[in-house]
Amino acid sequence: MNMIFLTFVFPLIGFLLLSFSRGRWSENLSALVGVGSIGLSAIVAAYVIWQFNVAPPEGGHYTLVLWQWMSVEGFKPNFALYVDGLSITMLGVVVGVGFLIHLFASWYMRGEAGYSRFFSYTNLFIASMLFLVLGDNLLFLYFGWEGVGLCSYLLIGFYYSNRNNGNAALKAFIVTRIGDVFMAIGLFILFQQVGTLNIQELLVLAPQKFQVGDFWITLATLMLLGGAVGKSAQLPLQTWLADAMAGPTPVSALIHAATMVTAG
Fold first, then answer.
1. Element (H, E) at 264
2. Where is each NADH-Ubiquinone oxidoreductase (complex I) chain 5 N-terminal domain found (predicted)?
3. Does the pLDDT at position 46 exceed 90?
4. Element (H, E) at 66
């Protein structure tokens, strides 16, 4: 199960290679790197899911600490991945559906200008989604959350020469950022009140610190809900979703049906 970090490393490598190619690669090579990186991620994910079900970790969950990001006056966030039933399910959804969408896109996007650019964006999108669903603490979950938002902006505005498409991308970016601001406020409140952003520590400490109906925990919960409302396109932050169809068809599948809205 220690191999789980490779699920987002492969898409990141694909993103970097495609970005530095600057469109000089052939479509076949771009598709090989773009689709292949997600395929490798899917293979690793399938192995991790199989291992999780055949030999479940003690307690039904597993934490893989890769390194400590910083240490500032008791704030010591780790770059860590948390695997349990929920995260392993979302892992399967993201890489499984994402791989199928990449396969479809390798055919559908043939002949389009910016073919390799498209796959660099989608690879970064998948990496950000995996960061989101596997993050051990809310800080790194938020980084993945913002990465997904950035990639959705780039993908919706893929045909940027059309002004309407650019406006649709900008609308999606601004509206979802409103929800993201609410989420950031919720994280600040939780850290100020509890002293940690580690998800498992929060689940233990929050019931000890807060009474039912406590103002601060209610406010933090509402702020986090505001972030989810923005990403999942619920009232009143649903206005960006219809315009997001301005992107290529594979983007609509990736954002609407498979990953980002589901994450919200």
1. none
2. 69-119
3. yes
4. strand 62-68
Tokens 């490779």 belong to 6
Three-state secondary-structure class, residue 189 = helix
Average pLDDT estimate for 78-103: 91
Residue 203: closest CA among 94, 86, 52, 57: 86
Q: 195 pLDDT band (50/70/90 cuts)? A: confident
Token pair of 194, please?
């509890």
What is the number of alpha carbons within 13 Å of residue 5 lying toward its C-beta?
10
pLDDT at 263: 56
Mean pLDDT of 173-199: 89
User: For residues 105 and 251, what is the distance between their CA atoms, to the nearest angstrom?
Assistant: 9
CA distances from 210 to 25, 125, 220, 224 (A): 56, 36, 12, 17
Query: 60-75 pLDDT, tens per residue?
Result: 888 888 888 777 777 7
| HEC letters along 94-124 | HHHHHHHHHHHHHHHCCCCCCHHHHHHHHHH
Torsion of CA 238, 244, 245, 251, to 10 degrees: -120
Q: Which tokens hold the place of 221? A: 């919960």
Is residue 29 within a helix (H) or strand (E), and if so which, with residue range?
helix 27-54
Q: Is the dihedral of CA 232, 234, 240, 246 positive or negative?
A: positive
Rg (CA), the chain: 19
DSSP state for residue 2 in the 8-state scheme: G
Q: Burial, 67: exposed, middle or buried (Cβ in 10 Å; 0-12, 13-18, 19+)?
A: exposed
